[in-house]
Specification:
mainly alpha, 0% strand
Length: 457
């Protein structure tokens, strides 16, 4: 059976999600090799975790992208944005010093953030009311394929092109692989992202504009003209919008703190606390992200339009909480020096988090964030929320990691207090999401807007 245009559009746009998560994980995997090659320590590890696609870079990019996508259309982003991403990962791939790494990480992070409001808005606006969750699920599948593929490649390359000498800390010198040193495997990971970015750009620049945005924009131009800034200022004065932003940020920011810690810093826990080499780290990552990918399709995409959102969200949030309880238990064992028999905690964490993340708060945030705001400032509202969420993660990466975890490479026991904090924030996400879960299933975006705002559009 031929694939519908709706599904083709969803797949093309979803490649942005693949590049988002792929960039986060590639940077995370590369941290150890970059640190060895360019001689930086835990401070720059935290900085690089904070300024890229995982935090501040994406936060600022989302503000820019949200503004552009509401003012000029959803597809304006697709004409140029991934070229910025391609430049960023190309610089990271070719990096020969720390400044080049910083520039590459920042550029790719800005691009990732800019693409988020456009992507989720475009998918929702071009989906039938009975397919919105299914298509958002596909975008989340693409998001989880990024880490899965990067970890699989990293695992394979660790056998073919090992980066370190037998001591596990000394980077192999130039000339090890022709003219290349132990960074060759890392450079190949970014080469994969570069190729996918260029393919995705070619597909996305051909997309037709969202009919929903075009219709609402035409109506707005026919009436009283209002600047985007004035429109957003008025939107933020509306108590319905303020309550919605508070709800979505409470659900997603709390979950994202745990997810960001997982994506950026868990390899350090596996290496230092679990005494696991790079091959084992990649294996754990592969298992986790394959589970995320499978559950994105099998649970959220298949059931998101059929099963109560409150039930699905609650189940995911409980599993996520249990996964970090496992890390807290492992942290206690670290403090007591009794981790030899506690490896099951890491595997339990990987499985529980992997399953839960397949239909996680991020899936529901992507869905609700597009459903609960009018078309005219749907992208801008998402940009503001995404900025708050990723900026909070940036602050956590810079301040929280150092203050609470300390030097995690030397003191992995710092993960215990961090795990306790993650349990608290995940409990908040669970309660807020279950209690105030919106009733939007099966309704068109116009129906949802009219129910919430009246006939204002």
């Amino acid at each position: 059976m031929a694939m519908s245009q709706e599904r083709k559009n969803t797949i093309a746009v979803s490649l942005t999600n693949f590049l988002d998560s792929g960039c986060i994980v590639a940077s995370s995997v590369a941290l150890t090799a970059w640190a060895a090659a360019f001689g930086f320590g835990s401070m720059w590890t935290s900085v690089l975790g904070a300024i890229g696609a995982n935090a501040f870079g994406a936060a600022v990019g989302a503000l820019i992208g949200g503004f552009l996508t509401d003012k000029y259309g959803r597809t304006i982003i697709y004409k140029y944005n991934l070229l910025v991403y391609a430049l960023g990962v190309a610089i990271a791939m070719c990096a020969v010093n720390l400044p080049m790494v910083v520039v590459g990480v920042v550029l790719s992070g800005l691009s990732v953030g800019a693409g988020v409001p456009a992507s989720w808005s475009y998918i929702s606006e071009t989906s039938a009311s009975t397919n919105r969750a299914a298509n958002i699920g596909i975008s989340q599948f693409a998001w989880s394929c990024g880490p899965a593929i990067i970890f699989i490649l990293s695992l394979a390359l660790s056998f073919v092109l090992p980066g370190f000498a037998a001591d596990g800390t000394t980077l192999l010198p130039a000339g090890t692989y022709g003219p290349f040193d132990g960074l060759l495997a890392t450079r190949l990971l970014f080469l994969v992202l570069l190729v996918v970015a260029l393919v995705a750009w070619n597909l996305q620049r051909q997309l037709q504009e969202s009919a929903d945005w075009a219709e609402k924009n035409l109506a707005a131009e026919a009436g009283d003209k209002q600047s985007f800034g004035s429109m957003m200022a008025n939107a933020l004065k509306n108590p319905i919008n303020v309550k919605t932003i508070v709800f979505l940020v409470a659900v997603y920011l709390t979950w994202n703190l745990a997810a960001g810690t997982n994506g950026q810093f868990m390899p350090y826990l596996y290496a230092a606390a679990g005494n696991i080499d790079s091959t084992g780290q990649s294996l754990l990552g592969v298992v986790q992200w394959v589970l995320v990918a499978v559950c994105s399709l099998a649970i959220f995409s298949k059931l998101g339009d059929k099963v109560s959102h409150r039930v699905l969200f609650g189940a995911s949030a409980v599993l996520a909480l249990l996964s970090w309880i496992c890390i807290a238990i492992f942290g206690m064992a670290l403090n007591n020096g009794t981790t030899d028999s506690m490896g099951w905690c890491l595997w339990a964490y990987v499985i529980l988090w992997g399953v839960s993340a397949g239909f996680s708060a991020q899936c529901f945030y992507a869905l609700w964030g597009t459903e609960l705001f009018p078309t005219q400032y749907r992208g801008g509202a998402q940009g503001i929320m995404f900025f708050l969420v990723r900026a909070a993660l940036g602050i956590w990466s810079l301040v929280g990691v150092g203050a609470i975890m300390g030097d995690i490479s030397a003191n992995p026991a710092g993960f215990f207090p961090a795990a306790v904090i993650m349990c608290v924030v995940l409990l908040i996400s669970l309660v807020v999401g279950v209690v105030w879960c919106p009733q939007t299933q099966g309704k068109t975006l116009d129906q949802i807007t009219e129910e919430r705002y009246g006939k204002l559009q």
